[in-house]
Amino acid sequence: MDYDLIIIGFGPAGISAGLNASIRGKKVLIIGKKSKALEKSPSIKNYLGFSDIKGLDLYNNFIHHIKKYPVKILDRKIKAVYAMGEYFSIDLGEKMLTSKACIIATGIDMGKSIEGEDEFFAKGISYCATCDASLYKGKKVVLVGYNEEAIEEANFINKMASQTIYVNPNKNSVKLDDGIKVINKKPKKFLGALKAESLILEDGEELKADGFFVIKNSSKPKSLVPSVKIENTHIKVDLDMKTNIKGLFACGDIVGTPYQINKAVGQGQIAGLNAASYISKNK
User: Fold this and answer.
1) Quick one: fold of 125-215?
2) pLDDT tens track of the chain, all 283 residues?
3) Are the beta carbons of 262 and 269 closer than 8 angstroms?
4) Pick from 161, 219, 223, 233: most CB atoms within 10 A?
5) Are 1 and 99 in contact (CB under 8 A)?
6) Is the peptide bond before 42 cis (omega within 30 degrees of 0)?
């Protein structure tokens, strides 16, 4: 087993969960990108103990705190979390990591899915270029990029694909490697039979490709954790932050409103302590 506990998400909930599990003596790994929303918040006035603090300052305090403990932090996205009965397998694309328990604290994706996106997930559509780009070596790929990370992902894909097309819904200036075609249009819907075969853009233009990537700030719970129970687009948990899957916990925005830092930190503590207790009872 690689770790006692793997936490997916490096925001307030994930950091709080990792801190509390580490204090209980568990070997912890946190996987996730930094919280851009928190970093960019100009003023937070309702976090207990701080009458007014910048989001970046508060977040740096969280990170400084967790780094005092033997918690490993991996700055990247994952492909999926698989419940294997007595343990969990975390798919990084090029390798798998295992843990006795897992906590999902990824936050939520505020944007709507492209029509057909959910239907064709893992059927020609992926959310992680680092994970799946190798499947399209020498093939044509279309990537829809909603954030800065999408630029890096497109450049990575382009090293393998025969042709890479970057669909830029935000229509902002992007600097990509030579050979990548940029289309400043919004995606409308995916079409296909058994898998995604084409992407229709806002003006009706059709882009046919062998594979499609949608790069945004977070993936939807159903695609991240197969078989986890969802209620009103959020992962359903009880008061102990337990999901319907044994050993799997969730906390923060991904389990529901209010979308507040105070709540995320508190739920992270509950999830971290209960995950640690679960690990101890199942040695």
Assistant:
1) FAD/NAD(P)-binding domain (3.50.50)
2) 899 999 999 999 999 999 999 999 999 999 998 887 788 788 898 899 998 999 999 999 999 999 999 999 999 888 889 999 999 999 987 889 999 999 999 987 756 789 999 889 879 998 777 767 888 999 999 999 988 888 989 999 999 999 999 999 999 999 999 999 999 999 999 999 999 999 999 999 999 999 999 988 666 777 789 889 999 889 999 999 999 999 999 999 999 989 899 999 999 999 999 999 999 999 7
3) no
4) 161
5) yes
6) no
Domains 3-109+218-282 and 125-215 share a fold: yes
Residue written as tokens 């719970």?
221
CATH superfamily of 3-109+218-282: FAD/NAD(P)-binding domain (3.50.50.60)
Buried b or exposed e, range 137-154, using 16+ CB within 10 angstroms: eeeebbbbbbeebbbebb
Q: Two tokens at 166?
A: 């970057």
**AA identity, residue 93:** G
